[in-house]
Amino acid sequence: MRVDFGELESLAKSLGVAISGIPESVKRRMLRVVSEKISGCISKNAKRTGMLQGPYNEDILAKSVRIKERGGYMEINFAGTQHGNRNAEVAFVNEYGKTQQAARPFIAQAIEQGMDEAMPELENILLDYVEDILLR
Asked: How many angstroms separate the first and last alpha carbons of the chain?
């Protein structure tokens, strides 16, 4: 999944900083916060809705964090198997549906929830960075 820093761009501009000028280490911190929040929300939604059974809804991990100029991306890993299928396949079918089975999106909702939960921390990380620049 791709995470765009566009939501923080107006805040950065108001502080006189371009998102493209923010060091990779700061962007990586921001993306880790987002990935932790989204992974947590996916786990909660999977458990609440019964999308993934047993301990597998707790083994949803964000991996392979990559930073690009205006954002970054991460992989979400669904560990384990269920009913002979990999949990990633079960999650995909639940999210998008298939013939004779309606979509039951829980990942898209979790991404939205996770971004909302992450926003205050992201703003704090960005403000800390700007304060460091001003104090130099």
From this structure: 36
Better-predicted residue by pLDDT, 94 or 17 = 94
Location of structure tokens 């820093």: 5
DSSP symbol at 76: E
Return the structure tokens found at 17.
Answer: 């900083």
Provide the 10 A C-beta neighbour count for residue 135: 6
Position 99 confidence tier, pLDDT thresholds 50, 70, 90? very high
pTM for this one? Answer: 0.76
Q: How many CB atoms lie within 10 A of CB 120?
A: 10
Tokens of 91: 């999650």
User: What does the alpha-carbon distance between residue 64 and residue 77 come to, in Å, rounded to a whole number?
Assistant: 10
Residue 71 phi/psi, 5° resolution?
170, -145
8 three-class SS: helix
